[in-house]
Prior knowledge:
Mean pLDDT: 93
Number of helices: 17
Amino acid sequence: MRRQKVAFEPLQPGKVGMYVCGPTPYAPAHIGHAYSAISFDTIRRSLKFLGFDVRYVRNITDVEDKIIKAAHESNEDPMALAARFTDDYNRDMARFNVMAPDIEPKVSTHIAEIIALIEKLVANGSAYATEGDVYFECDTFKPYGQLSGQSLEDLRAGASDRELVEKSKKSSADFALWKAAKPGEPFWDSPWGKGRPGWHIECSAMTHSHLGETFDIHGGGKDLIFPHHENEIAQSQGAYGTNTFARHWMHNGFLNFGGVKMSKSLGNVFGCGEIAKAVGGEALRFFCVKHHYRSPIDFEVEEIRSADGTPTGVRFRSLEAADRDLEYFYITLQKIDAFGAGDDGAVLPDAEKLITSAREALADDFNSPKVMAALHEAATLANKLLAEGKGLDKQLRKRSIARLGKDLRTVGDSLGIFSADPAVYLRERRARLVERKGIDVAVVEGLLAERVAARAAKDYARGDAIRTELGGLGVELLDTPQGTDWRVHDDAS
């Protein structure tokens, strides 16, 4: 509400109560869902990295108009459809290394709490019942509009009188807490008849159930500021008479494509499975944490067309670039692991800066781009020490390299990256590139075997010729102490 950074002081020292609006599971999850989940998972991880004990609650809105509509269209039970897409959502988020919430409340299991909260609002005059519906009366909450900058006068000015007559509302700004049952819809018994909860009251009841009347952090996408979060504040504070519902509001920025906001109507919504298949889940996460959670992200996508101009698919240019950058880190970690650990003792001053730099950046409104810069600096130093140790004490060099590897992983964990085994990551990345570029693995393996035989026979000219031939196929050879491996040469073409 202050629209500025403020010092974070939790209600209980060292502990954080955090609530994030989760999905309405009526369709497969898309990249927008992933971006929001990654943003707040990164904040959660960062708080833990900074020493806080975090109680993380992310809800499932499994009772909502869109679910009912989708269920009718597919001739499926609404609760079964919501459960199916909830499972899919959680599997998709796991692809991007999003940790499961500590608590995942569902609307359908909190109906009693929702009804009790509405009863409280009706009893104290903040809400009114009419023809089986119950509405929150916005005029009873004087601070309404503080979060979004909206005013009741402006909201009423843009509304028609027809809605007031049709729904028996006192004001066009008033919003539904309980909706009378309609034929074919799920319903529950209530003091106002059979019906179901409105969208906004659901989150208020679940936050109160699991975090109390006042808690530390409430998160969600910027598109939820109005009306959802504004209405949560009004009904929660209206019910309990508190001056504060959530002490800190945090909203992730929008995801744009070529400067245009993501929208189903524009056809620029991409599924989580499509993203993971193209570049791997970690590449999307890596791309997201390179940006500050509050900033909009511009996402570059290129349409692929056949020779006759027919669209055949898309390439995620931004994510491919992130994947190349991520590969650099995993190759670095693989080299560090192979180099071996040093003994206990001092390390080079520049080799012990990463943790401190990361703490300072994350303590400043979770500045993940600054952390990424520090990670690059540490990886560059590690590669420099791996390549050359002239003039350095052998053990000092070894300790410094090992320390850099350990800290790269520790700080990476605060952003949700670098958790895979490097060999596994690199192998899976190679498989994706092989498929994308149409490389025949059998041909590559055959030429590799021929090169090994040529080198064993000291026919180095033939060995060099095979290297050149493989290069023409887009394959780069990696001669290591363990033998020859290969990677797909990945450029921006």
